[in-house]
Write a structure and sequence with these properties.
Elements lengths: L1 E4 L2 E4 L10 H5 L2 E9 L2 E2 L2 H14 L9 H14 L8 E9 L17 E8 L4 H6 L1 E7 L14 H12 L4 E6 L2 E5 L3 E6 L2 E4 L10 H12 L4 E3 L12 E6 L3 E8 L2 E2 L7 H14 L8
Parallel strand pairs: 7-8, 7-14, 11-12
Antiparallel strand pairs: 1-2, 1-6, 3-4, 3-5, 5-6, 8-9, 10-11, 10-13, 13-14, 14-15
Helix pairs in contact: 6-7
């Protein structure tokens, strides 16, 4: 696999990062995952803006990281790994840490150069899961209060995902102060009384790029929508529940904590939004065998 590290393209086996890198020592950095369909970057601007915001919030000096150069890196990785063909579906991962310095909690001086690592990988949509829906489990959201930053320090999300795996389900859905916030690696939408709802943008959730697209598509389709939390006491009223994300697209949840959502099947809003998203991405979902 061809990867990129600090100005050079190389085979993955050749890539080495210093043990003094603050990403390794502190999880001090940000990342982005961008979808690429047929070599075309999907919602590139949204991912770039979120990346820049994360760098700014963490005060990582990355003035030399130019959007045009990042796009060139992405495109080179896609081509170099055979992922730019017309029918290809892939993801590109970009990680930027504060760089290398002797271990100290305080930020190092201005001479500390950020570490930039990127790779591309093939992606295959799990069509059967998208069509049939999945199970999820609920958990308390005890993460830090800056979930709007896409930091590489993902230990709470890792633990939440492992709770789902241990429970034999696909995802964990988290609640903070009685309100459904998001999944371990996803945003969450639900339908109550015909109205589509999701947790409002704040420091408590990631401003998902796919989330933003789904909000636009819902309005285009005339689906009633409001940014309002779904509360734990309303779970029994849910008609639909689904997840969104760069590699999640629109993923319906048909059971939460073993309890059926609505009729226990994929709902009309999720189906319509799933179809609209695939059309916008230029993807035709294969029928389930």
């Amino acid at each position: 696999m061809l990867v990129y590290l600090d100005g050079q393209f190389m085979q993955k086996e050749e890539a080495k990062v210093s043990v003094d890198d603050r990403g390794f020592l502190f999880g001090d950095g940000v990342y982005e995952v961008t979808r690429a369909i047929g070599g075309r970057l999907f919602e590139e601007e949204g991912h770039w803006n979120r990346l820049r915001n994360g760098l700014r919030e963490l005060e990582i000096r990355a003035e030399q990281i130019d959007r045009g150069r990042v796009r060139e890196i992405y495109e080179h990785l896609l081509r170099g790994n055979g992922l730019a063909e017309t029918d290809s579906d892939a993801t590109v991962y970009l990680q930027i840490t504060r760089g290398c310095a002797p271990r100290s909690h305080a930020f190092p001086g201005p001479d500390c150069v950020p570490t930039l690592y990127a790779f591309a990988a093939p992606f295959q949509i799990p069509v059967d899961l998208r069509r049939a829906g999945v199970d999820a489990v609920s958990l308390p959201d005890i993460r830090w209060a800056r979930c709007d930053i896409k930091t590489i320090n993902l230990l709470p999300n890792v633990v939440a995902k492992q709770r789902a795996v241990a429970a034999g389900v696909w995802e964990s859905v988290m609640f903070r102060d009685g309100a459904m916030t998001e999944g371990s690696a996803t945003n969450v939408f639900g339908v109550i009384d015909g109205e589509l709802r999701t947790y409002p943008l704040s420091n408590y959730i990631l401003p998902g790029i796919t989330r933003s697209v789904i909000v636009t598509l819902a309005r285009d389709l005339g689906i009633p929508f409001r940014e309002r939390p779904i509360f734990s006491h309303e779970i029994g009223r849910l008609e639909e529940l689904f997840l969104t994300g760069t590699t999640t697209d629109v993923q319906p949840i048909v059971r939460l904590d073993g309890r059926a959502i609505g009729d226990g099947v994929v709902g009309s809003a999720a189906s319509a939004l799933q179809e609209a998203l695939m059309e916008r991405m230029g993807i035709a979902l294969a029928p389930v065998a």
